[in-house]
């Protein structure tokens, strides 16, 4: 039985409903500020989320949906426009986080604190920009919370984003732990496909954007992490008698 030594969390959609509450509105505000009549509706955004990485998502949108798009004269080329849009969007995302508009999902804070009290290490493995991770954690868990995580693997730290395994490989390497001693938490098929090749077992907590995706290979698929007051729903896998996610359940999943 492999000993549990670390929990590795995805951010967007796993720690918080950031796509719904943060990224999508921030993208639309950046488009409006830049004089673009682009509107990423929840339905369109659900399709665009298949491409991980905000800069990559903007590029895919132009290529797949705006075949005759002309880059505004304000920008030297498409790359310059994407860089500007993404920086503007990140500023808005940080503002929304600071305004308390991006709360953590159920059970997240409890599990993080339980892991800390039990000496289980914490790490993050996310495609999002590091500044977004800092804004989310500081504004939900307090200024010291970044120090709770031994590794924050994020954004462009690796050459290939999810579903490539690079970001989880980076997290494991910097934790200096084998995958067998760790458990990953994700919300998307992209994330599951990123974690699995590294040997990590993965717990998926679905959300509105991802609940219809394929999670074959996940160790456990849940509605959310649950709380003592609001039990989770087990969609697939074996949670035993647990009604909310605990460090003990994590240990059982590694057994
Ligand atoms: C989700 C992503 C990110 C965010 C947007 O990352 O794909 O690109 O949608 O953030 P994860 P950026 O699920 O791995 O947390 O615009 O900063 O990329």
From TrEMBL:
Protein name: HAD family hydrolase
Origin species: Leptothoe spongobia TAU-MAC 1115
UniProt cross-references to InterPro entries, sorted A to Z: CbbY-like, HAD-like_sf, HAD-SF_hydro_IA, HAD_sf, PGP-like_dom2
Keyword annotations of the record: Hydrolase
SUPFAM superfamilies: HAD-like (SSF56784)
One Pfam match: Hydrolase
Signal peptide stretch: none
The keyword Phosphoprotein is assigned to this record: no
Source organism superkingdom: Bacteria
Lineage: Bacteria, Bacillati, Cyanobacteriota, Cyanophyceae, Nodosilineales
Gene Ontology molecular function terms on file: hydrolase activity
């Amino acid at each position: 039985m492999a000993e549990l030594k670390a929990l590795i969390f995805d951010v967007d959609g796993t720690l918080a409903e950031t796509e719904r509450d943060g990224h999508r509105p921030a993208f639309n505000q950046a488009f409006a500020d830049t004089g673009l009549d682009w509107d990423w509706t929840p339905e369109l955004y659900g399709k665009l989320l298949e491409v991980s990485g905000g800069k990559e998502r903007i590029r895919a949108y132009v290529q797949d949906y705006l075949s005759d798009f002309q880059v505004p004269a304000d920008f030297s080329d498409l790359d310059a426009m994407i860089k500007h849009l993404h920086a503007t969007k990140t500023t808005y995302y940080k503002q929304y986080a600071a305004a308390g508009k991006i709360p953590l999902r159920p059970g997240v804070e409890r599990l993080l604190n339980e892991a800390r009290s039990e000496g289980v290490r914490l790490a993050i493995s996310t495609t999002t920009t590091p500044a977004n991770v800092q804004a989310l954690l500081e504004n939900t868990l307090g200024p010291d919370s970044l120090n709770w995580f031994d590794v924050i693997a994020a954004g462009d730290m690796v050459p290939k984003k999810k579903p490539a395994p690079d970001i989880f490989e980076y997290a494991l390497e910097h934790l200096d732990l084998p995958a067998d001693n760790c458990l990953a938490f994700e919300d998307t098929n992209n994330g599951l496909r990123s974690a699995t090749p590294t040997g990590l077992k993965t717990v998926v907590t679905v959300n509105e954007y991802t609940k219809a995706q394929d999670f074959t290979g996940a160790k456990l698929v849940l509605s959310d992490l649950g709380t003592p007051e609001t039990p989770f729903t087990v969609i697939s896998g074996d949670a035993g008698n647990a009604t909310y996610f605990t460090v003990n359940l994590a240990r059982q999943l590694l057994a």
